[in-house]
Specification:
SBP; Sperm_putr-bd; alpha/beta; Spermidine/putrescine ABC transporter substrate-binding protein; two-stranded antiparallel sheet; D-Maltodextrin-Binding Protein, domain 2; disordered C terminus; disordered N terminus; 283 residues; signal; 20% strand; polyamine binding; 2 domains
Length: 283
Amino acid sequence: MKRKISALFILSLISMLLLSACGGSGGQGNKKSDTVVIGVYGGDWEKHIKPSIEGFEKDTGLKVKVVSGTDSEWLTKLKASNGQNAPYDLLILQPDSIQRAQSAGLLQPIDQKKVPNIKDLYHSVQKRFTVDGKQYAAGFSMGQLGIAYRKDLVPQEPKRWTDLWNSSYQGHVAVSSPTYSAGLQFFAGLINAQGGLESNKKDVDKAFNSLADLKKNVTAYPDNPGSIQTLLERGDAWVVPFWDGRAYSLEDAGLDVGFAYPEEGAVAALASWAGLLQQFKMG
């Protein structure tokens, strides 16, 4: 049976991670600070995390500065800092970003004694973030990447990943580049849709060639959720690979958006908290 993670659990997990696994000091090196800097995705992510942050500040007396951004932006800054004086303490990252950051020695392993709730997370997920018996991230939000589309504009609703190449969508498809997590996940979905494997170079090359053929349909290459939302709202993009949660939020807000889980298979998406290398000192 799948375990449901409540809002209270998320608040508890965030609080413990902020207190014990905050990897930096708000960009202040080893100086003591009462401010924690966390990076989250913009839009609904930033809006919905606010109550948890306010609760943490009230309970601890610490201040939390929320910075919105994307994995590629954060990783670039982390690598530039080489793990020292990083501008963040805690980040929400996708699995591939966590792997790269951990391999580069930029993440702090989670102290499981100080974060006991981590044992309540999905073990199959946490296993992916475990290296030499140490866990480097806490997976807390799961969704799926599929196809978001404007129901009032598309001549026909998409059902498959390969529908994005349909000539009826020409000039109205938006696709993120692989440097953004949505684009990378779409690329994985495309390889699978073509019957290939990500580990097979020929299958990867075939998918890249298909992306080249898709250019005639593409209107934009958005690299963040805000850009995707704007493209959908303006009607510039009729179809775009996007996450189900994001699409349903747009629908709830009144936009005439539908969401399709492609017949070849949607792509699992996982967001996780990860703490950076430096030690956070409370003043």
